[in-house]
Amino acid sequence: MEKLDPEPLDHCYGTTLEEVERTLRFALDIVSDGIWDWNIRTNHVKRSPGWYSMLGYPQDGLPEDVDTWKSVIHPGDYERVMRNFQAYVSGESQIYAEDYRCRCRDGSYLWVSDHGRFVEFDEDGRPTRMIGAHRDIHRRKMASLELQRKNEELLALNRRLESLVAERTEELRRTNEALAQQVATAMRLSETDPLTQVSNRRHFERALHGEWQRFQRHGHATALLMFDLDHFKRINDQYGHQIGDRALVAVSRSVRGALREEDCFARWGGEEFIALLPETDLESALRLAERLRQRVPQADPGLPRALTASFSVAAMQAGEGIESLLKRLDDGLYRAKLRRDCIEAC
């Protein structure tokens, strides 16, 4: 710890030590609201009149020892103040300076700023005297705490607003997602045959129109395949529509499983089905039709009678319109049905 040279205090320009200390106290009274002087050897603490006045106590109305100081420190500040004070006393810290609350005579608490330092040492360098000053910082501290409180309230409000915005954003996202799912479901239902769950005629016609336009621009090979279940009316009449529906569902599932993802497979109407086969020439479409013809009887072995189907296959031709293409395909299917369980190329 820094030692205070006693020589200038013993004799400074002809003044006594008592006069110097009195002058020092006057100076401290000017710059502080209260000063304290701790004799470490005797544990005696001398406090200035301003110190008592600041806290509302009568002058010299409290015991002049360290315990009095400890007793007026706010319980919420006590541990921090003692820890930092002890750090200075033990030499771990170079300064002692703390802001804390002191209990006034009326029971209220006053914020003070406390600064102190050793001013005298024994021959071994151990401190024997410490002087400090208290300053009333209550108004400034309360204003600072109020500003801090308002800032925290503002921060909390901002967080609530951010949370509310995030919540509303998430709610809007979920609503939009649900709406999109509903739209997608409605679109899928509008394009799906309710019984077989394959595409319906409306969806197929739109897909066919798009592929036909692509064929007109680029000339990529594209084929169509149409088939009709043989003697289907007999199944409905003999076994009932429930068995007929079962047969339609089974054949749809079997055929769909043999097609590519890019192929568009649809129920054309009744027991008629149609498939659009991009990037497929006539020969490839005929081979596919043969595989499908063989799959039809195996679609549902539990049916009361085996199924067969008649197929018609056609490839898009340059300069041919969609209506002409479909008529050619339909005419081929008519010819196939005259023979049953066969394939007609057209």
UniProtKB/TrEMBL annotation:
Its EC number is 2.7.7.65. It catalyses: 2 GTP = 3',3'-c-di-GMP + 2 diphosphate. Residues 140-178 form a coiled coil. One of its GO terms (cellular component) is plasma membrane. GO terms for molecular function: diguanylate cyclase activity. InterPro entries: Diguanylate_Cyclase, GGDEF_dom, Nucleotide_cyclase, PAC, PAS, PAS-assoc_C, PAS-like_dom_sf, PAS_fold_3. The keyword Coiled coil applies. Its main location: membrane. Residues 220-346 form the GGDEF domain. Gene3D superfamilies: 3.30.70.270, PAS domain. Keywords: Coiled coil. It is found in: Cell inner membrane. SUPFAM superfamilies: Nucleotide cyclase, PYP-like sensor domain (PAS domain). Residues 96-149 form the PAC domain. Its cofactor is Mg(2+). It holds the Pfam family PAS_3. GO terms for biological process: cell adhesion involved in single-species biofilm formation; negative regulation of bacterial-type flagellum-dependent cell motility. NCBIfam families: GGDEF, sensory_box. PANTHER family: DIGUANYLATE CYCLASE DGCM-RELATED, REGULATORY COMPONENTS OF SENSORY TRANSDUCTION SYSTEM. This is diguanylate cyclase.
